[in-house]
């Protein structure tokens, strides 16, 4: 059975987007998924499913809205995807502090035209690298101070996105190795 990681965008960051992790796990289990685990309170769900990935994110979004009353975008990755993300970070060779590294997961791969719109703002100390459906970020002054945040990337690319810090990416990769189908 394939193993998936559902990355929910923007939950538990404001008053109207609160979702309990127990309720989220129950919702995934009720949909027939197994080995359901959550990581942190920020909407990271690991699970296995015999269903193909096509349409799965939309189904999860609809059920989260209907059952939990929160409109949350769901971006899916497999365990193998996270392994590639972990291995592909171009900033690991020069930054040992994981607090300064982030990955923005994109809903889809940008077209060349979309990618051309992504430029580092003047005066910005953070750097980025767009690799397929991920944007790697190196934020030497901290993610809270960069203009290269999730909203900026979504606006420039016109693609839904959600950002995780490197510690979370590492933990999700490690947890995903234990899923039946990775």
Low-confidence stretches: none
Side by side, the strands of the main sheet go: 2-3-1-4
Mean pLDDT: 93
Q: Which word captures the global form?
A: globular
Q: What's the structural domain tally? A: 2
Q: Indicate the proportion of strand residues.
A: 15-25%
**What distance separates the N and C termini?**
8 Å
Taken in chain order, the helices and strands follow as EHEEHEHEHEEHEH
Major sheet details: 4 strands, antiparallel
Number of strands: 8
- CATH architectural label of the largest domain: 2-Layer Sandwich
CATH topology type of the largest domain:
Alpha-Beta Plaits
Structural class: alpha+beta
Q: How many DSSP helices?
A: 6
* CATH C-level of the largest domain: Alpha Beta
Computed Rg? 16 Å
State the share of residues found in helices, binned by percent. Answer: 25-40%
Please characterize this protein's 3D structure.
It is a single chain. The protein has 182 residues and is α+β, with helices and mostly antiparallel strands. The protein folds into 2 domains: 76 residues, SP0830-like domains (Alpha-Beta Plaits); 90 residues, Alpha-Beta Plaits (2-Layer Sandwich), CATH 3.30.70. Helix content is 31%, strand content 24%. The chain contains 6 helices and 8 strands. It has a 4-stranded antiparallel beta sheet, with helices on both faces. A 4-stranded antiparallel beta sheet has the order 6-7-5-8. Helix 1 crosses helix 2 and helix 3 packs across helix 6. The protein is globular and about 50 Å long. It starts with a strand and ends in a 6-residue tail after the last helix.
């Amino acid at each position: 059975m394939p193993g998936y990681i559902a990355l929910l965008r923007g939950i538990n960051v404001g008053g109207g987007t609160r979702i309990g992790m127990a309720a989220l796990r129950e919702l995934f289990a009720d949909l027939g998924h197994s080995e359901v685990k959550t990581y942190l309170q920020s909407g990271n769900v690991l699970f296995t499913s015999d269903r193909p990935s096509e349409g799965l994110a939309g189904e999860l979004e609809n059920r989260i809205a209907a059952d939990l009353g929160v409109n949350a975008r769901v971006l899916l990755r497999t365990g193998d995807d996270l392994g590639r993300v972990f291995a592909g970070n171009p900033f690991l060779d020069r930054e040992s502090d994981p607090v300064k590294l982030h990955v923005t997961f994109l809903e889809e791969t940008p077209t060349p035209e979309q990618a051309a719109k992504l430029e580092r703002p003047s005066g910005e100390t953070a750097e980025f690298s767009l690799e397929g459906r991920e944007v790697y970020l190196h934020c030497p002054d901290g993610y809270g101070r960069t203009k290269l945040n999730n909203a900026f990337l979504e606006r420039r690319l016109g693609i839904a996105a959600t950002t995780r810090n490197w510690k979370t990416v590492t933990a999700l990769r490690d947890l995903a190795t234990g899923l039946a189908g990775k």
